[in-house]
Amino acid sequence: MGVVSIDLTGLALGTHDVDWPDLAALQQPTWGDPVALAQTLSVLASYPPLVFAGEADQLRERMAQVAAGNAFTLQGGDCAETLSEVTGPNIRDRIKTILQMAVVLTYGAGMPIVKVGRMAGQFAKPRSQDTETRDGVTLPAYRGDMVNGFEFTPEARRHDPERLLRSYHASSATLNLVRGFTSGGFADLRSVHAWNRGFIKGPAQKRYEQMANEIDRAVRFLEASGVADAEEMRRVEFYSAHEALVLDYERPMVRRDHRTGLLYDTSAHLLWIGERTRDLDGAHLDFISRIHNPVAIKLGPGADRDTVLAIMDKVDPDRIPGRLSFITRMGAQRIRDVLPALLTSLGEEARRVSWICDPMHGNTFTSPGGFKTRRFEDVVEEVRGFFAAHAEAGTHPGGIHVELTGNDVTECVGGAGEINLADVGLRYETLCDPRLNHQQSLELAFLVAEMLER
Ligand code: PEP
Ligand code: MN
């Protein structure tokens, strides 16, 4: 962000002129009060866009480089953002973590890294059950702060449309800080050491310090030689993404680009559709096929060739470079069986999209203490299986999509910090899925950099 020159003339308000077809939409809130909802939707439609069409176009160009095998994308952030965790330190540490991982990947792989935050809109979650029962009391399940509250009370669990507006404002505040950090000098390549400050110093952070010393030397060499472009080193392109799940949030955020008349979802640069809402005749695929942002679809181990081709024909019939990515989340146990066959069966079509590995969602289990967790080793194994599958099929392993935090949590087991199953509850802060902590995120980046080097 911060690189596109933006023409502000003719910015349309919310697109009331779009006739959204009445299709089945899974995982939607039941708001109750239709009058309050209608008011909220029109307020949301009157708000300024959070991102610009030109920025989304630029990300599509970057993703075209990913699809072509010339770049790699790093997508990361919380499973679910929460309104109360939208704080300066949290956002800063997540950005620092992603910048650190990206620099490790760039340095190791010598390839441009397209950086995408799973943030500034990731406030809603699909759930496997509509309700939750505790001690004989049944209430609506927590669906993310965009819909209801986590607290187990009838009042908190009520679906409240006011939360759509609060999510917009929280996203706006988050993006404002992201833009400040990534264009205001904080992301300067001469600050690689500073990004590591304030974190606990484990083996991965130490390894990072050594690499940062090498980068410093290289930067000084380039500066002394007069070939360093100061402006290019000062800023970084950083894009936002979230799951397009709650259509009452996404639809009012759609705007018509005055340059072309095309529709863009201005809630984020990239939107994805989850494994649970990607049915071909459903409202989510219809929505995503109408907007011109770069988009992604999650694919679980059951996805077959015909389904993938049908998704491509619906969402990206013209096979626009950079338009469509598939985020596979097959599980460490299944990926080596399932993904090579799927890629091979797609033939040339597999080269027209980007392939991204989500090594998190196929590897979740419950600890003996009752916490949802994942093993770091399974995460790494799934990424290895992903690289092996693409090597076998002759396609490009285009990126990773991970749930992470800059905080020192104990939500995933394993890694150099040797978090074991009994420790998972110690600093378990996520309200939804377990995230890699800072150390595990850096460790993963070093391992993926080695896989990319080969
Ligand atoms: C997620 O990304 O948090 C998620 C719910 O993933 P999936 O749709 O792959 O289950
Ligand atoms: Mn998740």
TrEMBL record:
Keyword annotations from UniProtKB, A to Z: Amino-acid biosynthesis, Aromatic amino acid biosynthesis, Cadmium, Cobalt, Manganese, Transferase
Pfam family, one: DAHP_synth_2
Annotated EC: 2.5.1.54
Names of the cofactor(s): Mn(2+); Co(2+); Cd(2+)
Binding site for phosphoenolpyruvate: 118, 275-276, 298, 329
Pathway: Metabolic intermediate biosynthesis; chorismate biosynthesis; chorismate from D-erythrose 4-phosphate and phosphoenolpyruvate: step 1/7
GO biological process entries: amino acid biosynthetic process; aromatic amino acid family biosynthetic process; chorismate biosynthetic process
EC main group: transferase
Binding site for Mn(2+): 79, 361, 403, 433
Organism: Ornithinimicrobium pratense
GO terms assigned for molecular function: 3-deoxy-7-phosphoheptulonate synthase activity
Protein name (Swiss-Prot/TrEMBL): Phospho-2-dehydro-3-deoxyheptonate aldolase
Keyword Amino-acid biosynthesis: yes
Family: Belongs to the class-II DAHP synthase family.
Catalyzed chemical reaction(s): D-erythrose 4-phosphate + phosphoenolpyruvate + H2O = 7-phospho-2-dehydro-3-deoxy-D-arabino-heptonate + phosphate
Cofactor: how and how many bound: Binds 1 divalent cation per subunit. The enzyme is active with manganese, cobalt or cadmium ions.
